[in-house]
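Internal tracking record. Fields below are filled automatically when a chain is submitted to the structure queue. Please do not edit lines marked as system-generated. If the sequence contains nonstandard residues, flag them in the REMARKS field before resubmitting.
Queue: standard
Priority: normal
Entity type: single polypeptide chain
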Amino acid sequence: MGFLVFYPIISIGVTTIHRLSEIDNMKIECGCHCIKCGSTKLESNQVGPIEEDGYFDMHHTCNNCKTHFDHLEGEIFDSCEKCNYMIS
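SYSTEM-GENERATED OUTPUT FOLLOWS
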């Protein structure tokens, strides 16, 4: 039987600091919400290199409404080569 471990997410303004979990096969954890339906059930992909300050760009796919988006730019994608995402 497993148990959930919650890590703090640090938010500064509208920028969420993402980090890699040491459990769950390096799953990316964040405090983001879907920009279309507001769900927090997101699959996240790192789409850029880790910068010197530890930040990196991410794309999210909502598990509820299937919207694929860049949370910082607010852009919604119909397809994304970086994440191998296509609307089915």
